[in-house]
Amino acid sequence: TDRRDKAEKALVEARELWQSLADRDSPNTMHHRHRLAVCLANLANVWLEMKRNDEAEEALAHSLEIGQRLVTEVPDQPDYQELLARARNSMGVLVRETRGEQDAVPYFEEAIPRWRALFLRFPSVPEYREELERTCKNLLGLLDKHPDDEESLEEALALRKELAEAFPPSGEYRHKLAENHIRLATHLKQPRRLPA
Fold this sequence. Notes:
196 residues; mainly alpha; 8 helices; 82% helix; globular
């Protein structure tokens, strides 16, 4: 806890410094806003570890807001896309823990296309592949909990197919893809239930 407290203190101080720099009108303003958003996301992670979920959610929301503005202003900047994808995935994890699984799904769904685009544009950057994989697994973990929902099964199937194609050496994805096909087929064979 002592190390975590020190990390929190350092990040709070960094946040204040980045905020003061971002508030200035200078040629480096976008860089300062980006660093502020990264700092906020890191601070949110520390607060998550400390079970200070409200503060973590507020910091992540602010980071997302800054990230979205940066991406809108400079859509081709990979650092801004990465920031936004990472913050959305983190918000999905937080929301899953605090508000429930269904509320978390949109955050993961919004992060995946950004990680995918980064991975396809920069295939030599292993971090993009790892983050795409991690975010897909976060979403699949939620979708797999609804084996009777045809839409969830089809979404999980599409995601697993994409992973199996993107990472061919991994037998794990092909195995899970085969299982997903079986679950969907089993579901589709069952007679349709009429709504109550």
